[in-house]
Amino acid sequence: MTQPSTQEQTGQPKTEAGLKSQKAVRPQPTNFDKEPSKIAATVGVPREAAYLFFRDLENLPSFMKDLKSIEVISETRSRWTVEIKGISATWEAEITQDIPGEMIAWESVEGSEIQTQGAIWFRTAPENLGTILNLELEYKVPGGKLTELVTALSGESPAALAFTNLRRLKCLLETGEIATIEGQPSGRDQDATLIEKH
Amino acid sequence: MKALTWEGKQKIGLTNVRDPRILSGGDVIVKVTTSAICGSDLHLYDGYIPTMKKGDILGHETMGEVVEAGPMVKKLKVGDKIVIPFDIGCGKCHHCKEEEYAACDNSNPNALIPDKLYGSAGAAAFGYSHMMGGYAGGQAEYIRVPFADTNSLVIPAGVEDDKVLFLSDIFPTGYMAAENANIKRGDTVAVWGAGPVGQMCIRSAFLLGAERVIAIDHYDGRLRMAQEGGAEVINYEDVGSYVGLVDELKAMTGGRGPDACIDAVGLESHGQSVTAGIDRAKAAVGLVTDRVEALRMAIMACKKGGTVSMPGVYGGVADQFPIGVAFGKGLTFKMGQTHTQRYMKPLLDLILADKIDPSFVITHRVSIDQGPEAYKRFSDDKDEVIKVVLKMH
């Protein structure tokens, strides 16, 4: 004799908790131009707050490594300046897609001396974990005098830079600070002197 | 200021460096009064931990007086006497909120390295390699403490340093190891390694209700201290380090084996068996990083369904891990860096209530000037030298 409830029991969980967490992890809107980057972090702030912080592009230099400033020119246009080891470069970027609370994509305008593009995706994390952020950063090496700068900018790879910048963003949003050791003393400093060694 | 710096394998420097300063709003600067050399500092000394750089300031068992506080610091003020936990929590990420401080998401600025090596990055620590954040340590006259509201415990006036210093690491580490051992009243607990952490495990196991604790080591000086703490002791060189020891432990426990086994040795394990010899040979040529003889013995001796708790530090890969033995007996394993901040306050209360005085473990007190020499003595004479504290000012 079959139990009438068998089919239900083998289906998706029907408890309230089960439904909730399924909803939370289900991919949200699909009207993105491209798939979210695989560089992801879960940040303990609401999705709207994370989106609004990032959408104010002038906040970006506070956590993006080597980004000296961003000047907002219009609703979608901004001027970016990076500086590494005394070399600097400036370009203008255009926001190419902006879905409030969900994603922002941008790229440098044609003819910029550095070609770069990036995107960030915002999704609600399960339970009380906040927001899942996915970040993509691309720097195209144009050759010539800026090659060295771009190589320094992207470190090992654009993925490594995106990883580090995303961690810094998470730290800033969660703690109001960015973990750092830059400026602490060590025996490698020029003014350090070894008294004795064993 | 003066600081002890890592200058290469088995080389410690006494170095004059700049004083630290506030680098972020949540920092404090602490004038260090007392600091200690940890057994895990010897892993650095012996070159077992990757990503150390010459000139790195050592030390992660530190206490002192707050002399400057950043604008975001809420709970501390200048003049407070604090103990500083060895691992660094941000206090705000999901893991810190769950009191899993050693799993902090945010404190390690070099997270990319452990993310690639371990799959994800744990908390940073003071004075313990760039993979662990590269933070300057506390074997120095001053230290900068980030996220200071989270990484501090204020000590009431009038309590002497030596009584509370070990809240920074080894007492919480020993206590969490005992907690991880799932001790039930009446249990017998075996502890491998009667070094400072092992000594704290022994005392903590009794505090948590163990009826018997058996300490295993090959240094008589350390075994004597274990005995003073109420443990029965085995010098494994007397019984043979693998089969002999397992037989001895089973004989002492009615044929069952200890209910819980704690490996307080970690990655530089000694031992005399064939596998221990292979470990040493492979470690010498860089084929493995972690010598796991104590862990193998703990797995072999533990009773069916028992728990193996691992406070001993491991850093890489191990060979000849007896997975079949662990599976066959249905063992539970618990391990990992200590969530120090979770334990500091309750353990301070135990100290203030005279339930325990962790200063029993101190065998040597020296000034910072004698620091480099103290490392060498700690490394060379483990029988006599159990715990060295450095007086800074």
Secondary-structure blueprint of this entry?
The complex is a heterodimer of chains A (198) and B (393).
Chain A: H1 6-10, H2 16-25, E1 40-43, H3 47-55, E2 67-72, E3 77-84, E4 87-99, E5 103-108, E6 115-124, E7 131-140, H4 147-154, H5 158-175, E8 193-197
Antiparallel strand pairs in A: 1-7, 2-3, 3-4, 4-5, 5-6, 6-7
Chain B: E1 2-6, E2 12-16, E3 28-37, H1 39-45, E4 56-57, E5 61-69, E6 81-84, E7 87-88, H2 94-97, H3 112-118, E8 124-125, E9 142-145, E10 153-154, H4 161-164, H5 170-180, E11 188-192, H6 196-207, E12 212-217, H7 220-228, E13 232-235, H8 236-239, H9 243-252, E14 260-263, H10 274-284, H11 293-301, E15 307-310, H12 323-329, E16 332-335, H13 340-352, E17 364-367, H14 371-380, E18 388-391
Parallel strand pairs in B: 11-12, 11-14, 12-13, 14-15, 15-16, 17-18
Antiparallel strand pairs in B: 1-2, 1-4, 3-5, 3-9, 3-18, 5-6, 6-10, 7-8
Helix pairs in contact in B: 5-6, 5-13, 9-11
In short:
The complex is a heterodimer of chains A (198) and B (393). Chain A has helices at residues 6-10, 16-25, 47-55, 147-154, 158-175; strands at 40-43, 67-72, 77-84, 87-99, 103-108, 115-124, 131-140, 193-197.
Describe the structure.
Helices cover 25% and strands 31% of the residues of chain A. Chain A has 198 residues and is α+β, with helices and mostly antiparallel strands. A 7-stranded antiparallel β-sheet of chain A has the order 1-7-6-5-4-3-2. In chain A, strand 5 and strand 6 (115-124) form a beta hairpin. Residues 1-27 of chain A have low confidence and may be disordered. By secondary structure, chain B is α/β, with parallel strands linked by helices. In chain B, 30% of the residues lie in helices and 20% in strands. Chain B has 14 helices and 18 strands. Chain B has helices spanning 39-45, 94-97, 112-118, 161-164, 170-180, 196-207, 220-228, 236-239, 243-252, 274-284, 293-301, 323-329, 340-352, 371-380, and strands at residues 2-6, 12-16, 28-37, 56-57, 61-69, 81-84, 87-88, 124-125, 142-145, 153-154, 188-192, 212-217, 232-235, 260-263, 307-310, 332-335, 364-367, 388-391. The model of chain B has no long low-confidence stretch (mean pLDDT 93). The chains are: A alpha+beta (198), B alpha/beta (393).
